[in-house]
Specification:
- Two copies of one chain form a homodimer.
- Chain A has two domains: 9-89, Arc Repressor Mutant, subunit A (Orthogonal Bundle), CATH 1.10.10; 94-137.
- The first copy, chain A, is 37% helix and 22% strand.
- The first copy, chain A, has five helices and five strands.
- In chain A, strands 4-3-5 form a three-stranded mixed beta sheet. Chain A has a two-stranded antiparallel ribbon with strand order 1-2.
- In chain A, helix 2 crosses helix 3 (43-53), helix 2 crosses helix 4 (59-71) and helix 3 crosses helix 4.
- In chain A, a hairpin with a 7-residue loop joins strand 1 (76-78) and strand 2.
- In chain A, 24% of the residues are buried.
- Strand 5 of chain A pairs antiparallel with strand 5 of chain B.
- The structure holds manganese (II) ion (2 copies) and zinc ion (2 copies).
- The first copy, chain A, binds a DNA duplex (30 and 30 nucleotides) through residues 21-22, 24, 26-27, 42-44, 56-61, 63-65, 68, 82-85.
DNA sequence: CTTGCTCATTAGAATCATTCTTATTTGATA
DNA sequence: TATCAAATAAGAATGATTCTAATGAGCAAG
């Protein structure tokens, strides 16, 4: 229930209604898709997976749901290169590792204090409210 | 002349010819525009500034030149949000600070060793060849 | 219950950054 | 100077996203 914990399908309804929004089947489905397989899919990939469950859902709705979930802060939009935005349901402070061989993206948990340490490099007058860290490279195996 | 120094308009010709590419007026102009005002402009903004100097230059050529300069590693392409790619001639290791009030982007020099320190958070099996750090917030002034 | 509203979804059009295609120009080299 | 690959230019095409307009669903009086 802390600010940085990851939402669950169960807590989603509360988050939405608490924000004055409706917990629709489409919003729940889109969130469940992100929650089940944390592979940072694009909107289009979410759409493909969603259609398997709900054949009538539209791409526009997937975009709308993703935007709503981002506004509610239960999902993060990730952009580390030109190309489609990717979506991540992990709300813990974490970095992203982009495997250049496979194109896949992995979450890297951050040790407590790291973000604060990194913020100390900012000159006086710069006030950061978020820090994003992106690694690029390859993974063994 | 070290690997991480920033290219100058003077060194550009060498870099290009050393890569088997021609030092064309368009490439030099595009680089000079980035070098003179380090405000991380988009391709379109570079195009506007370039036309003032060289009215016949085309947007396609600006894109081509920028891509060439990125390939030669004298310019960095920066993407920290959906939206047009921005270009940066600073080749020193640095982070980006995105001022959410003004939309402007500032370079933040990194103390030596910071990137290596950040890399120590990677689990075994992850080999990063680059680390990108993006701050978002506001600046005093 | 029904009506009335507001929110949400849908389909398709529009937008915008970027890439591609094709023709033309340039410039180094033989 | 002729050759010919590299580079530029103009416009078309692409692809992700956003917008528009119409339809549908759920709640809140009446
Ligand atoms: Mn997408
Ligand atoms: Mn651009
Ligand atoms: Zn993530
Ligand atoms: Zn920069």
């Amino acid at each position: 229930m802390s600010e940085t914990s990851t939402a669950t399908p169960e807590s989603l309804t509360q988050t939405l209604t608490g924000s004055g929004l409706r917990a629709t089947p489409q919003r729940e489905l889109v969130f469940n898709i992100l929650f089940e397989k944390r592979d940072h899919p694009t909107a289009d990939e979410v759409f493909t997976r969603a259609k398997a469950e709900m054949p009538t859902i539209s791409l526009a709705t997937v975009y709308n749901c993703l935007e709503t979930l981002v506004q509610c802060r239960v999902v993060r939009a990730v952009n580390f290169e030109r190309g489609p935005t990717r979506y991540c349901p992990n709300q813990r402070p974490h970095a992203h590792f982009h495997d250049e061989q496979t194109g896949s993206t992995h979450d890297i948990d951050l040790p407590p204090g790291l973000l604060d340490h990194v913020k100390t490099i900012l000159p006086t007058g710069y006030e950061a409210n978020s820090v994003e860290i992106i690694f690029r490279g390859k993974t063994q195996s």
